[in-house]
């Protein structure tokens, strides 16, 4: 039961949360490094050749600059919006010494601490992984001032 929890949150994962997580993952990998290098090279090519090329090539240079700065983030956001459509609306998630307790309108489940495979703290959120590809996003809006205490608590439970 979720009434005597050490920590309890009511929240709804948003498309922005998934977008933010995707962007963190992307730009902390080799793909992100390649994106940054490509964009920097496109900017330098644009600066160097802008006055010497026709309008078609100018458009292509602008598209090259926008590819990873505008187009890719928009595509990732729209993919996140499609993912959100498959996730339950409001979720109540509780944390206590026994584990993690999840409750939605239609179902509830419990995860023991020994089934949690990891936790990650990002600037705007804490991620708790139940599998390599699934987990819970608790953003700063949900966690509020208790973010650091909550993170320490979960770390202590996972390390046991």
TrEMBL record:
InterPro entries membership:
YcxB-like_C
List where the protein spans the membrane.
21-44, 56-78
Residue ranges occupied by any YcxB-like C-terminal domain in the UniProt entry: 95-150
Keyword terms of this UniProt record? Membrane, Transmembrane, Transmembrane helix
**Name assigned to this protein:** YcxB-like protein
Organism per entry: Serpentinicella alkaliphila
């Amino acid at each position: 039961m979720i009434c005597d929890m050490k920590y309890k949150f009511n929240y709804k994962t948003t498309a922005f949360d998934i977008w933010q997580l995707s962007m963190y993952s992307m730009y902390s990998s080799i793909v992100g490094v390649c994106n940054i290098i490509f964009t920097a090279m496109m900017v330098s090519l644009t600066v160097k050749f802008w006055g010497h090329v026709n309008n078609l090539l100018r458009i292509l240079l602008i598209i090259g600059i926008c590819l990873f700065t505008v187009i890719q983030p928009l595509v990732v956001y729209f993919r996140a919006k499609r993912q959100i459509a498959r996730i339950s609306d409001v979720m109540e998630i509780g944390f206590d010494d026994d584990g993690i307790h999840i409750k939605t309108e239609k179902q509830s489940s419990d995860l023991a601490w020994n089934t949690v495979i990891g936790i990650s703290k990002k600037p705007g959120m804490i991620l708790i992984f139940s599998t390599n590809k699934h987990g819970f996003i608790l953003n700063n809006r949900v966690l509020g001032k208790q973010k650091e205490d909550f993170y320490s608590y979960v770390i202590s439970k996972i390390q046991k």
